[in-house]
Design a protein that fits this description.
By secondary structure, this protein is of the alpha+beta class. 15% of the residues lie in helices and 16% in strands. It has helices at residues 37-46, 56-64; strands spanning 12-16, 22-27, 73-77, 102-103, 109-110. The protein has a three-stranded antiparallel β-sheet with strand order 1-2-3, with helices on one face. A two-stranded antiparallel ribbon has the order 4-5. Strand 1 (12-16) and strand 2 (22-27) form a beta hairpin. The chain starts with 11 loop residues before the first strand and ends in a 14-residue tail after the last strand. Residues 1-7 have low confidence and may be disordered.
Length: 124
């Protein structure tokens, strides 16, 4: 493994919201000249922020407009987790092995025929 790449001081800080779903780009007092989109991308990568990043055009516009730099930019947003569903079991066989008997076509019950006993084979 090589040494980690030193990241240039971009003049910006990344702040993650309390719910860990949003990341804001704040400018420090003085922003060094020559800060580019690549510098901001490296800063995001260093903080391991890879999902929900706004498009490059918005970041470039933010870097080029000095008035915008005085306000924070929401640079990334994640998705909130959704509640799961309770598991359900779907039986693909008869679950009542203790039937009284089987109903015949003529309406009588055959008490000797209780149905098939379900069996499982290896790897079923």
């Amino acid at each position: 493994m090589g040494a980690p790449e030193k990241i240039k001081d971009t003049g910006f800080n990344l702040v993650v919201s309390k719910d860990n779903l949003r990341v804001f780009l704040y400018s420090k007092e003085e922003i060094p000249d020559g800060v580019t989109l690549d510098h901001i991308k490296k800063l995001l990568e260093a903080k391991k922020i890879r999902y929900g990043i706004i498009d490059d055009g918005q970041i470039t516009e933010y870097l080029q407009t000095e008035a915008l730099q005085k306000t924070p930019l929401q640079i990334a947003e994640g998705k909130a987790p959704k509640d799961g569903q309770d598991p359900k079991i779907k039986y693909l066989f008869d679950t009542d092995p203790l039937k009284i008997g089987t109903l015949k076509e003529d309406g009588t019950i055959d008490f000797k025929e209780r149905g098939k006993i379900q069996q499982a084979k290896k790897d079923d």
